Amino acid sequence: MTTETTEGVRVEVLKTWVPASWLADPDGGGLDHSWLGDAAAHLAGGGSVTFALRGDDAEPTSTELIVRAKAALAAVTTLLKERHALPADAYVEVDEESYGTPTAPEGRSRFLLPHQDGAHSSFLTPRAVNDRHGITETRVYSNTVFFKRPSHKMYQGFLITRPGKFPGETYYYDLIAMLHDAYARRTGHPPRDAVELELFLGDNIARSLELADVHRSRYLTVGSLLGSEHPAHHVLPSGPRAESELWPEQYASIPDIWRQVEACPCGLCEGPGARLMCHGVTATLGLSWPQTRARYEAAVTGERGDLLIGNNLTQKHAAFSARDRQICPVCVVVDTPVGPEYEAWLDQQWTQGFDRVGGAR
Amino acid sequence: MKREHDGPVALSVHEAGHLVIAHSQEALTVGESIWSDQGFTYTNVGSEADWTKPAEKVRSIAAQVAVAVAGGAAELVVHRGVLPEELTVEDVLAETGSIDFQLAQEWLALQRHDPSQDAIEAEVLDVFHLVAAALADRGTSALVSELADRLLARRRREENGTVRLGSTEPEVAALLAGARLPAEYPLTRTTTANLISVTTH
Fold first, then answer.
1. Of B38, B90, B117, the CB nearest to A103
2. Pairing of strands A13-17, A48-52
């Protein structure tokens, strides 16, 4: 069963033009600005925010844009702590500017499939009180191979320093809305409350962990989070790009995965990764990958100097980018996602996420 | 593993190439080469590297890249007897197949946030040349052929099951012990000094 309305299932995106006067003196500008308060409230409420940081400059340098991005995100983080229950030990993590965008071999662009940044240790979990599998003791999915830091990224984002040959698009997906629909399809009735969804998610994460020796993935996929029992749907393609391949051992050890990569239910998806995604969402949501995009996707076209920020736990994000695009990743993280402050923040996410999709409608 | 392999003989050489190079890498542990009942092959490789230590992380990534391209290099050098000189990225992609090429690429992309694709492809090309040169040694080629023959013989004895060639099997271990290969292949195009630090405040 899938609900027919799309109301409340798409992430709302707010674009904020940061005033040049604040950019000129962010320390002196303080936090008492409506644009800043609105952005923090929008993020806290489950939306995503695009901060335009170009100001009055025609072409600010990338270094200057990164300084502005740090300042803007630091200010928002402070407000999230003061007004919206972000844990006091959360902090801003700024990576290096990228050199480009990896594609499939010889590709000129990539479609990065829905994922969460640093998802070996950053993914949506139940509140500890609703965890019957011990997942919330560490909230770690895999811990031997990861990109850079094993921090728990609560908000992910990036500053576009060079869009590349064409303007890239970033896509957001409300994971709680997707869980709601997958639960309804699985059980034949909508969840009575957020707790039922949390238990459902916890069972799905536990299943994926139990299957880890088979699928070998380091990140939870959409299919695994939404409850697929097929190990193939727990496999994250390389990248994770729509155009990309799986690992040799995944082809060799998962029955049937070869056929799933060769052809998808809708017959429209291009690339091994996209076709596998199509199978995963068909099994859990009853929708093909293009139908899933049509129902849940919110799209943002990013320009140079835009800082895109979204919730890294209640949302998944994807992107279509040129090979020569450059970005600087920025996140709001905690080192250990445990304790009463984290649980209170997570409680807020579950409660409002469930309300967004209409509660027990 | 190579999707577009030219038959069981080429595939057995391809997989033996993975096994031999994996065994030579100090940063890795190698288990066995497996030929699944569905016709797919892979070589089980592991690492104990601590990824919070940049030097360990880079060494293990470099080793994984060498192993990933070794199957294609073995097909070219050992199976077809070609001594590679000036290969292009397209040539390497054709030899390794897209699955192994992208496995190498994925390891390289884990070094930092998004190295450029140009740098990744140049790095794969460089490592392929180094590995192919190492496999071209007469003794090493003979070793790859010997292991490929054993894997293929097991496949032919059991056509419908999964067959394995383990690096710790006494006869296999003895053969591998005689190999003289570089213990690591350096990366020069995708590494950055600052691998794990970020600005925080």
1. B117
2. parallel
| A272/A292 Cα distance (integer angstroms) | 17
Name the minimum distance, in Å, from the CA of A11 to any CA of chain B.
26
pLDDT score at B2: 60
Nearest residue in chain A measured CA to CA from B93: A105
The domain total for chain A is: 1
- CA dist A342 → A117, A118, B138, B154 (Å): 18, 18, 61, 55
Q: Identify the helix (H) or strand (E) that includes residue A318.
A: strand A315-322
CA A126 to CA A198: how far, in whole Å?
5
A61: in domain: yes
DSSP string covering A47-98: -EEEEE--TT-SS--HHHHHHHHHHHHHHHHHHHHHHH---TT-EEEE-PPP
For B:122-181, CB contacts with A below 8 A are: none
Is B29 within 8 Å of chain A by CB? no
**Residues A93-111, mean pLDDT to the nearest whole number:** 87
Q: Are A228 and A234 in contact (CB under 8 A)?
A: yes
Q: Is A142 on the interface with B (CB under 8 A)?
A: no
The pLDDT of residue A2 is above 50: no
CATH number for the B8-177 domain, one of 1.20.120, 1.20.58, 2.30.30, 3.40.50? 1.20.58
A323 touching chain B per CB within 8 A? yes
Structural domain boundaries in chain B: 8-177
B114/A101 Cβ within 8 A: yes
Q: Is B99 on the interface with A (CB under 8 A)?
A: yes
- Among A38, A43, A44, which residue's Cα sits nearest to residue A344? A44
Q: Is the CB of residue B199 less than 8 Å away from at least one CB of chain A? A: yes
How many angstroms separate the CA atoms of B82 and B105, rounded?
24
| Residue position matching structure tokens 């056929």 | A259
Q: What residues make up the domain containing A322?
A: 13-356
**Interface contact flag, A93 B114, Cβ < 8 Å:** no
> Which residues make beta-bridge pairs with A153?
A333
User: What pLDDT is stored for residue A195 in this prediction?
Assistant: 97
State the pLDDT confidence band at A161, using cuts at 50, 70 and 90. very high
Is A2 domain-assigned? no
DSSP A241: B
